[in-house]
Amino acid sequence: MSLAIGRTGGVGANSSGDIFVAFSTANPRASGAQGVRQVAMLPNDAINPLLWATVQATEEAIVNALLAAETMTGANGVRVYALPADRVVAAMRKYGRMPH
pTM to 2 decimals? Predict the structure, then answer.
């Protein structure tokens, strides 16, 4: 979710590698071309817990991926080093950015 990506310092941009998945909560055939449609819906505030849980789960997945990454050597011998997990966690604690 884009909110979690932003909370962890990322941006959604062309070639960023981010994958966005969207879903609709619209009723089936609610956008028909003819006639009056009946729509069942939840109040706006009722969906907030689902949205917040999605942000938290995505944020946690991003942090887990960063901390689980290992040093690796790729094409042309380019080496990318793993983040020092203890220092990342300490920095997150210091700045109040530990996921809930």
Answer: 0.59
